[in-house]
Amino acid sequence: MFFKLARKNVTRSMRDYAIYFITLLFGVCVFYVFNSLENQWVMELLAEQNSDYVRAILQLTDVVSVFVSVVLAGLILYANTFLLRRRKRELGTYLLLGMGQKTIAVLLFAETMFIGLLALVFGLGLGFFLAQFLSAFTASLFQMTVDEFHFVFSWRGVGKTVLYFSVIFLAVMICNCVLVARQKLIRLLQAQRQNEQIRLRSVAASAVMFVLGVALLAVAYGLLLKRGLLTIDRIFWLMLALGTAGTLLFFRSLSGFLLRICQSRKGLYYQNLNMFVLRQFNAKINTNYLSMTVVCLLLLLAIGITACSVGVNSTVEGNVERTAPLDMTLRLDDDYFVFAREDLPDALEEAGFDPENWLGDFAVVCRYAVKLDEPIPLAEDGRELNDAYIMSLSDFNSLTALRGEKPLVLAPNTCGMAEGTEPESYGKPEREAWQDGALFSIGGHVYAPDPKAYHTGALYTSEIDLSDVIILPDEAMETVQKDAVWLRQYYLAGDYAEGVDQEHAEELLWNVWDETLFDQVEERGSDPDGSSAFGLSLSTKQFIYLDTMGTKILVLFIGLYLGTIFLITSAAVLALQMLSQAADNVGRYRILRKLGVEEKMRDHSIDIQVFLYFFLPLLLAVVHSIVGIKAANDVIAEIGKLDAVASSTVTALIILVVYGAYFLATCWGSRRMVRER
Q: pTM (2 decimals)?
């Protein structure tokens, strides 16, 4: 009988507050998905290629999971306390019928355990399937092929999820026992809510609070945009305090500001059920402005973290495509000018990697670092350009031909520009001089910039940023004196041949590089006295991709993890409060029905209240996030080109799905609650 009562209570509570159970289910699901990464097959494959990043992802996931568990614990404790207040009259009835407080505590214990077990079972089941999807998604990001797909159930993820949520539910049980022990029968029986008193403040006082709140937010916005996001000092914390205070004052002012403004517009105020809707909404603002402030800040975190993680993700991926246009590039720095152009492919062949067999198309080019005949003034501050990198037109065209680009043509006595990948902070003096129309004096000849001969994008694959290169006619290279050249660099760049096993070719190339290539190059590059000086480096698209994508996955996973949790938390808090308000308003809607108000109009009034309660915090959070994301984008832009439209679109879709689902579920639940009672 006792457990039958507990089961019926859980069933009834889940029917009225299904969002509470759904939130628990989603919490368990998301927690399991990210804590099962270590045992997923995709992470095992990635660990074979880059164990450092996989280890960093798993370690950071563990740390973030502790923080997430604290957030979820706060949400669950809040929701449980919130729902328990709704059941005070029911608990008082149990006491009146002779049930002791200890027995009621045990009843609540059984109910919590029952709903916790249900959430764990269904949440782990849903998480199991989503984890497989996450593995497939991760594999697609790394462009990995899997011979045989198989499902993986992570017992470690299950253990962590059960442990963390057991502690949370134990805290809920203790909280329930304490709350029941402190209650008196008379207080429980009289717990039926009365009409909330609406304290109407003067419009002037509310307007002052509103203006002050907006002013504080404007100051906080200005400090953030001026100082940036990475300057952490006392002013940074002051900025956060001003933003929080401004948000609080904004919602505080609405409790006396919104209703009075609507009352001044008689046509709007007395239309349909607007008077009833506005007074009910104003009453909730009057008592819940603190929770709306917290929800707004949580939404800001959810939007900001999600948008920034997606922004970093797209920026990093764009950098890979920009800095690694070819499968491999081998660079030889010739300090003593003892190498010939053919030495590089010959040494590579003798070391065990024949370019003719393993590479479909490749080119061997030379880049020179030269001293200009005459310095080029760059600005009024006295800066000058004294040196530049140059390359022949034929070498440049042989590189661009590997990617199917049309050959470049230079007009007589002109030079072109191949834009490098160095960030703007490097200054880029060659590009600055070229774009200003400066004349380049090299090898006794003067060359004017040809505006049509400008190339963007990397010429070859490189792990480091590439400098800008001046493109000169082939005949100009013959006039460059040897004493003006202080560095000569050979590049062997190309793509793997079609039909070859690219993974095997990549492995062979790196093995040759580690074992024999240095010896071959040193043997060919020795001076007659036996000394040699050279630098040798290898860059491959696959290595750069794996190295860079590790950062991408790290940021993306953690961003989506935290963003989803914050979004679920904020939406769940609003949903529970609105369902509670629907329960409070049952008597009022019963009176409206007796007065002849149609059901469609009553449902419409519920939808309007839910809409205002959900989207006012979201609206202010969006305004906050626009400023915050602008500051974050300035930081992200330092590492590459940012696609702000893509990050905003993905974030908007996530909010639409998660937040919109909670909004629709709350509207449906509130309607059903009012109709049935």
A: 0.68
